[in-house]
Specification:
single chain; mainly beta; five-stranded mixed beta sheet; five-stranded antiparallel beta sheet; about 0% helix
Length: about 190
């Protein structure tokens, strides 16, 4: 008949004597292959907020033009301001409580993160309390006002209300009047701490 040799209509039990078309000799690939080109760099911090003295992990990731990571690219971390923190092998330890701007760069590739990470360091638990009096020498019946400030082990002040402090007079003053806003009226003569 008129059919080409590879167009034979064969049933399930028929033998095919026709020659099959030759296979395509090109290798099978899913998509075109392009050179990997460093395109962007991203800054990543482990935690956006840490207490003073706690290490925060910082990593830089170089990305290709499709957003895929490129391993092995040389990067560096820049933290601004450039004081108040200490570098570690995996990141940094904030000592001064404030906001830091963290930027990754790869000078050899000409890349710098345009969207730096903000890392906030907050004070640690109180380690020291300073007590102040408006008047240190009083006559019996005189009034002074007490104020208290708390600091962490790095000297960062903590914002605490006076109600969060215990104000004790030593030795105990039997005739002491505690007024509003830290006012103390001493009715006893003596030396007190």
């Amino acid at each position: 008949p008129d059919a080409a040799p590879w167009e034979i209509d064969a049933g399930p039990n028929d033998r095919m004597d026709a020659e099959a078309p030759p296979p395509d000799a090109a290798p099978e690939i899913d998509a075109a292959q392009f050179d990997v080109i460093p395109f962007d760099i991203e800054t990543r911090v482990g935690n956006r907020r840490t207490v003073a003295g706690l290490e925060n992990n910082i990593t830089c990731q170089v990305l290709d033009q499709t957003g895929e990571p490129i391993d092995g690219a040389r990067t560096r971390v820049e933290i601004f301001p450039d004081s108040g923190w200490e570098a570690t092998e995996g990141g940094a330890v904030g000592v001064i409580a404030r906001d830091y701007r963290v930027v990754c760069a790869s000078p050899s590739l000409g890349l710098r993160d345009d969207d730096p990470a903000i890392w906030t360091v907050v004070p640690d638990n109180p380690a020291r309390v300073v007590t102040r009096l408006t008047e240190t020498d009083l006559e019996a019946g005189g009034t002074t006002t007490v104020s208290c400030e708390a600091f962490d082990e790095f000297g960062n002040p903590l914002e605490l209300d006076l109600e969060q402090f215990d104000v004790d007079v030593v030795p105990p003053a039997p005739n002491l009047d505690r007024g509003r806003d830290g006012e103390l009226t001493m009715f006893d003569a003596g030396t007190f701490d």
